[in-house]
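User: Okay, second chain of the day. Same drill as before: sequence in, structure tokens out.
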Amino acid sequence: MNDFDWRKRSGWHDSPSAGIYNIKRKHNKDFTFYYNPEDTVYNWSRWNYDSHTRKKSLSFTFHENDYCILNYDNIKIEDLDFYINCRQDREYYLEMIPLLKQLKKDKLQELEEEEAFKDLVCKQLKLNKDDRTIKLIGGTIDWWKFKVKEKRPLVREDAKALRMIKSRVKKILYT
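Assistant: Same drill. Structure tokens below.
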């Protein structure tokens, strides 16, 4: 029996592939996300047989201390570099190296988007781009991303993010 079988509602489908998923439910120390394996679903009835690609997402539950889960929001690029380049213990997580490289790529892209966003905030508020201002805007961006239950990237709601971040930066600078 697969180690992941208890986590799925049904044993008739594959476990989720490596990737980034958003947590939708938390119960005590268990977390649940939904995914669509896009496999073929077979419907049997008395008179006919039908198959089609799965349309509805399936749930997957994991415990906060599971070995196969990484918290994307709290991973630092330095940590990813360490594990990607560490030769001493690599044999214990060798199958995760492609995922770690993808996470690093995603994190670097997120940082690039945030840098462009910081420039935009500085430009619109007519602020000097010094270390203090960039640190303040960076902290405000983190505040905006993590102030709700689900982390949200800047690109998903960029107009709302710009408005809220500019307002908070003004409030901090001018009070």
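The mean pLDDT is 83.

User: Thanks, on to the next one.
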